[in-house]
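Example (one chain per record):
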Amino acid sequence: PDTEHHRPKWQLALDMLDDLAAAGLRPAVLVADTGYGANADFRRGLDGRGLAWMLQIKGEMTAHGEEAVPYQPDYGGLGPRPLPRYRTRPAALREHVLAAGRGRGRTVTWRKGSKAAMSSHFVLLRVRLAGRRPKPAADGTIGLVWLIAQWPEDEAEPVKYWISNLPADLPATDLVRLAKARWRIEHDYRELKSALGLDHFEGRSFIGWHRHVTLVTAAHLFLTEQRNSPKAPARA
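Predicted structure:
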């Protein structure tokens, strides 16, 4: 259609969330990879919609520590009053975790695998995100978020990072379980392509593509419902 044009995938994701909301649906927690987690506009879009999120990010993202507080510069009497600001320079998330040390963490099991329970060592901190377009309160304070870092015992430093706006009193096991929930997205996407033919479309029309994706999505919904439905015991 002439009305369709390129939109970044983070905007498409927000559009889909709006469509869900219009249908009376709302995700309990939105989980996404670094392609979304590193995008400040996407995070602000989620916050503006009042959604809880758990986003994977890279250790290079910067933040202030939990104890950092803004200060109000003196007003010289000319022009607009200066906004509150932080005196301390933000540090990379990786540096925050390394400064806290491995001893600050704990071993957490997030689910049972096909062979054994899946667990690792995690460090959980509270930080104030810096970088591009932070959204401070009127007093200049940047809100606290969770920083979850996976730091296996045999690694010199963390290997994965997540941030989340979930409540401060949420148990570590729940935070880690949600951080690790994205494996299901990867599994479903792989199933859509390999078993249901999502990437088999070779047409050039929007209508044809839309029909193809709709049928593949319906097939995946059917398989998911069958997988989650109680199974009758097999006859001997």
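Caption: Residues 195-228 form one domain.
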